[in-house]
Amino acid sequence: MPLVAFSSLSSLVLVSVIHLFKNIISCYSPPHSKI
Questions:
Q1: What's the superkingdom here (predicted)?
Q2: 3-state class of 26 per DSSP?
Q3: What is the distance between the alpha carbons of residues 2 and 12, in angstroms, rounded to a whole number?
Q4: CA pair distance 8, 14, nearest whole angstrom
Q5: 29 backbone dihedrals φ, ψ, rounded to 5°
Q6: How far is Cα 15 from Cα 35, in angstroms, rounded to an integer?
Q7: What DSSP state is assigned to residue 29?
Q8: 7 in the Ramachandran plot: left (φ > 0), alpha (ψ -120 to 50) or beta?
Q9: Helix or strand or coil: residue 30?
Q10: Is the dihedral of CA 17, 23, 27, 28 positive or negative?
Q11: What's the pLDDT tens digit per position in 5-35?
């Protein structure tokens, strides 16, 4: 597997994980305490 493909794949996974984490945080935290 080329390094460029692996790096782009891992960055894509990282972005989606961060997005999912932010959604979970915003679901469990009150709307007024948004960071």
A1: Eukaryota
A2: helix
A3: 16
A4: 10
A5: -100, 155
A6: 18
A7: S
A8: alpha
A9: coil
A10: positive
A11: 889 999 999 999 999 999 888 877 766 655 5
User: In this structure, are residues 34 and 26 in contact, taking their beta carbons and an 8 Å threshold?
Assistant: yes
Report field, pTM of the whole predicted structure over 0.85: no
Q: Half-sphere exposure (CA, 13 Å, Cβ side) for 10?
A: 7
> At 2, is the pLDDT very low, low, confident or very high (cuts 50, 70, 90)?
confident
- Token pair for 21: 């984490």
Residue 3 in tokens: 């390094």
- CA pair distance 13, 29, nearest whole angstrom: 24
